[in-house]
Design brief:
There is one protein chain. The protein is α+β, with helices and mostly antiparallel strands and about 190 residues long. The chain is about 35% helix and about 25% strand. It contains 5 helices and 8 strands; from the N terminus they run αβαβββββββααα. Helix 3 runs antiparallel to helix 4.
């Protein structure tokens, strides 16, 4: 599978490809309790997300598609932007004090993959989601078991997988299980120990 085909496949599944913002509908900065309320209200209207209260000043947002979610604490919030993409779909951008951000759509929580040394970030979408982890893993298996696995393709896909998992962990997703999958993929050309 060519890397450009892989990138297109991910982008079409996620529908967050290079989100070109048409307009910012509303911006909240400063009042963290208000920002958390705005996030909860957006999630309540979303068809594929659910929110649960974790006590004063914190909430959890989960995706229905895979049950993955993140915890949000008011003390971590810096800014919430209500946005509309070129297709007229609303989403929110949540900026954290750590410098990380997530895009919350009607069904998914998008995040930036981690920048890894030696990985051409132009080969992967700028925004990914947790379901993309399975897509990358399947592409990795396909490349590995294609009959003539190419070291370079497998190596790049391993790094893409790591970039997506690391990016997800950075914004608060628990991806220990998914990270363990990489340990099951053999390194091409690696000599086995006797």
């Amino acid at each position: 599978m060519q890397m450009e085909d892989f990138k297109s496949k991910l982008e079409s599944k996620v529908n967050l490809k290079n989100q070109r913002i048409v307009k910012v509908d509303c911006q909240s900065r400063g009042n963290q309790d208000e920002m958390l309320t705005m996030i909860r209200q957006f999630v309540t209207r979303a068809s594929g997300l659910r929110s649960s209260d974790l006590g004063p000043g914190s909430a959890r947002i989960e995706q229905s598609v895979d049950g993955k979610g993140i915890n949000i604490n008011v003390s971590d919030l810096e800014e919430v932007l209500f946005r509309t993409d070129t297709d007229g779909q609303s989403f929110i951008q949540v900026n954290f004090r750590t410098g990380y951000k997530v895009l919350v759509t009607d069904t998914l929580i998008g995040f930036k993959p981690a920048q890894l040394t030696g990985l051409d970030m132009g080969k992967i979408p700028k925004v990914v989601t947790t379901p993309d982890i399975m897509s990358v893993f399947e592409a990795l298996q396909e490349a590995l078991y294609s009959g003539d696995p190419k070291d370079e393709d497998v190596s790049v896909l391993r790094r893409v997988f790591d970039a997506v998992v690391t990016g997800g962990e950075a914004v608060g997703f628990d991806l220990k299980l998914e990270r363990s999958w990489l340990g099951r993929i053999p390194h091409i050309g690696a000599k086995s120990a006797a």
